[in-house]
Design brief:
Structural class: alpha+beta
CATH architecture: Roll
CATH class: Alpha Beta
Strand order of the largest sheet: 1-3-4-5-2
Number of helices: 5
Largest sheet: 5 strands, mixed
Radius of gyration: 16 Å
Distance between the termini: 32 Å
Order of helices and strands: HEHEHEEHHE
Strand content: 25-35%
CATH superfamily: Sulfate adenylyltransferase
Number of strands: 5
Shape: globular
Length: 150
């Protein structure tokens, strides 16, 4: 699907997975992140991955996601509210409790969560699948000012 498709087409295009992305960062966001929620962070370019824990329902759906697949995320629980579409760049297992400090730092940069939050999630929820992605819709690139010049 090309980037010129309309909002209705992107909001209903076939995807490999669909889920909510509604967590609020609160005081547990990484320094420098300005978005209040995980959904807003993707839109702001401050988040480029999602972590799906093996203990969560729907893990089999995420395990089947492959490079190049499209995924739709919704702003609210129950797959409602605004949505966005990302393209999967890669997936790999991650154990946030036992991974190296360098890997945890990379995870934090991609997720927008503080490093300490990552370790806490690993301790509470166990191993996970880490899915890197890029935003494909909405296309938030603003037209160049020069395009408006005569």
């Amino acid at each position: 699907m090309g980037m010129d498709h309309g909002a209705d087409e992107w909001a209903s295009c076939p995807v490999a997975a669909e889920a909510g992305l509604w967590f609020r960062y609160g005081r547990q966001k990484r320094p420098g992140v300005t978005a209040a929620s995980t959904f807003e962070a993707v839109l702001a370019g401050e988040r480029s991955s999602t972590t799906r824990f093996l203990c969560w329902p729907g893990h089999a759906m995420w395990a089947a996601v492959r490079h190049g697949d499209l995924v739709r995320f919704h702003e609210e629980q129950g797959n409602s509210g605004r949505c966005l579409v990302v393209r999967v760049l890669g997936t790999r297992p991650i154990d946030l409790l036992h991974c190296s400090g360098a890997e945890l730092e990379e995870w934090s940069r991609c997720e927008g969560w503080a490093v300490a939050k990552g370790r806490a999630l690993g301790a509470e929820l166990g191993p996970a699948l880490w899915i890197r992605h890029e935003l494909v819709w909405p296309d938030l690139v603003k037209p160049s000012v020069q395009l408006a010049l005569f």
